[in-house]
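1st attempt posting a full record on here, be nice pls
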Amino acid sequence: MNPAARSAGFTLLEVLVATTIIALALGAVIRSTATGTANLGYLRDKTLAHWVAMNQLAELDAQRRFPPVGRSSGTEEFGGREWRWEREVKETPDKDVRRVEIRVLPGGDGPDGGPGALASVTGFLGRP
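the predicted structure (as C-alpha cells):
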C-alpha cells in the first residue's frame, strides 16, 4: 500500500476514540447544566420562603398589638405556590419585648419526614 494513500484519512480506531472523548465531554457539560438548574430552583425557593417569613413578621408588627406567647401556624400563597409557616412567640428578659421566630416550609410537607425549613427569621417586637 502506498504510504501517501494510507495517511489520507482517519482510521476507524481514531474516529472511535474521538467520538468517545466528545461523548464524555458532552456528558460533563450536561451534568454541570443540570446541577446549575437544580441550584437555581433551590435558591429561588429559599428566597421566596425568606420573603414569606419577613412578610409574616411585618404583618405581626403592623397589627400594633403585643403578640401573645405561644405557637401558631398557617399557609400563604406567594410566588405562585403554597407555603407553610410556623411562628413561635417567646418571652424575653424585658417584659415589654417579645421574641418572634418564624420558619417557612414548602406547602404540603409535614413535619414527619418532609424537608426542613427553607427560611427562618427571628425578630423582636416591643409593646406598642
